[in-house]
Write a structure and sequence with these properties.
The structure holds two protein chains of two kinds. Helices cover 75% and strands 0% of the residues of chain A. Chain A is mainly α. In chain A, helix 3 (68-84) packs antiparallel against helix 4 (87-101). Chain A is extended, with a radius of gyration of 20 Å. Chain B is mainly alpha-helical. Chain B has two domains: 2-190, no CATH class; 192-238. The chains are: A mainly alpha, B mainly alpha.
Chain lengths: 104, 238
C-alpha cells in the first residue's frame, strides 16, 4: 500500500518535473536562445505529425483489414477539415466514420 | 482596470462557449480512454480512489496506462521514475513551443504548465484558435481546466462501474486520433513551409520501423530536433 502510494507520487513528481523543465531552465523570455525560439516555432507542426503516427502505430498493415478502417477514417477527417476548416466538426465526422466502419 | 471592465459578461460567455466547443473532441476521447483506464485499474485491484488520484495528480494518459503495470509488478521507485521520464519526455517539446504564449499568463501559469497534455497542447498551440478568444489568458485556463475535468470524470466513472464499456461507445476514442489529424491538416494548410510537418511524419515513420512501436517516440523526437536544426543551419548558410 505504502509502496503503491510512493509509486504514484514518484510518477506524478517526474511528470510535473518534465512539464516544468523548459520553463525552469529559461526563466525569462530574454534567456531563451534563438535556437530554442526557432524550435518553438517549428515544433508544433512536427510534433503533430509525430502524434498522428503515434496514434496509428498499432495499425497492422499485414492483417486482413490492412488497417483500412483507421486509414479511411483519418482520411475522411482530413478531407472534411479541408472542406469546412472546422476542427470539431471533422473530429465528429471522422469519429462517426470510424465507429461505423468498425461495426461493419 | 478599464480593460478589465471591457471584458464583459457576454465576452466571457463567448470565450467559454469557444472553449467548450473546441474541447469537445477531447471530451469524447478522454471520457472513453479514462473509463477504459478506470476499468483496468479496478481489475488490477486499484479502485476508484486510485484512478481519481492518478487523474488529478499524474494527468498523463499513456503514463497512467503504463503505471498499472508498474503498480501490479511492485516495480522499484527508480524504475517508475525512469519509465515516466521516457514516456513523458515529449512534453519538454510542448513547453518549449508554448514558452512565448504562456509568458504573461500570470497566476495561473503553474497550472497551465502542469496540465499541458498532448491534447491540450494540440488546441492551445493553434494561434488562430486562441486568437479568437477575447481574453487569451483566461481561454488558456478554461481549455486546460475543462480537459482536466473530462479526464478526471472519465477515470472516476471507469472506476465506479465494474461492468464493461457500453458497446455503443466503443470506437469513440478515435476522437483523439481525429483531433491530431485535423490539427495537423489545419497546420498544413495554414503555412507555406511544410518542412516541419514532413520532418515530423517522416522521422516518426522511420523510427517506428527501426525501433518498434513501444520505443520509437524518443528517437523520433531527437531525430526531429536534429533534422530541423540542420535545416535551419542550411537556410542560414544559403
Amino acid at each position: 500500500m505504502m509502496h503503491d502510494i510512493l509509486t504514484v507520487a514518484v510518477i506524478s513528481a517526474v511528470t510535473v518535473a518534465v512539464r516544468f523543465l523548459p520553463f525552469v531552465i529559461f526563466r525569462k523570455a530574454e534567456d531563451v536562445p534563438e535556437t530554442v525560439k526557432y524550435l518553438g516555432k517549428v515544433l508544433p507542426g512536427a510534433v503533430m505529425g509525430m502524434l498522428v503516427i503515434f496514434c496509428l502505430k498499432d495499425l497492422d498493415l499485414t492483417a486482413a483489414s490492412h488497417g483500412i478502417t483507421e486509414l479511411m477514417s483519418a482520411g475522411v477527417t482530413a478531407a472534411s477539415y479541408l472542406w469546412k476548416k472546422d476542427t470539431s466538426l471533422s473530429v465528429i465526422i471522422g469519429t462517426a466514420c470510424y465507429m461505423l466502419l468498425s461495426r461493419l | 482596470m478599464s480593460k478589465e471592465r471591457a471584458y464583459n459578461r457576454k465576452e466571457r460567455a463567448d470565450d467559454f462557449r469557444l472553449a467548450l466547443r473546441s474541447t469537445l473532441p477531447v471530451m469524447a476521447g478522454y471520457l472513453v480512454l479514462g473509463i477504459g483506464l478506470g476499468f483496468i485499474m479496478r481489475s488490477s485491484g486499484y479502485g476508484t480512489l486510485w484512478s481519481a488520484a492518478e487523474a488529478i495528480f499524474i494527468y498523463a494518459g499513456s503514463m497512467q496506462y503504463a503505471a498499472v503495470g508498474l503498480l501490479k509488478d511492485h516495480a522499484s521507485l527508480l524504475t517508475a521514475a525512469v519509465t515516466t521520464l521516457a514516456v513523458n519526455a515529449r512534453h519538454i517539446f510542448y513547453g518549449i513551443s508554448m514558452m512565448e504564449q504562456y509568458r504573461d499568463a500570470g497566476s495561473g501559469k503553474g497550472y497551465l504548465i502542469f496540465s499541458l497534455t498532448d491534447e491540450t497542447y494540440s488546441l492551445l498551440c493553434d494561434r488562430e484558435l486562441t486568437g479568437k478568444a477575447h481574453d487569451r489568458k483566461r481561454f488558456f485556463i478554461t481549455v486546460s481546466v475543462l480537459d482536466h475535468i473530462y479526464w478526471i470524470t472519465g477515470c472516476t466513472l471507469g472506476g465506479l462501474f465494474s461492468s464493461v464499456m457500453p458497446d455503443v461507445a466503443s470506437g469513440a476514442e478515435f476522437a483523439l486520433t481525429a483531433l491530431f489529424v485535423s490539427v495537423f491538416t489545419g497546420q498544413w494548410t495554414g503555412t507555406e513551409d511544410h518542412i516541419p510537418a514532413l520532418t515530423g511524419v517522416n522521422c516518426s515513420l522511420l523510427c517506428l520501423v527501426l525501433f518498434g512501436k513501444d520505443r520509437f517516440l524518443i528517437p523520433s523526437m531527437l531525430m526531429i530536433v536534429a533534422v530541423l536544426l540542420a535545416h535551419r543551419r542550411k537556410e542560414h548558410d544559403a
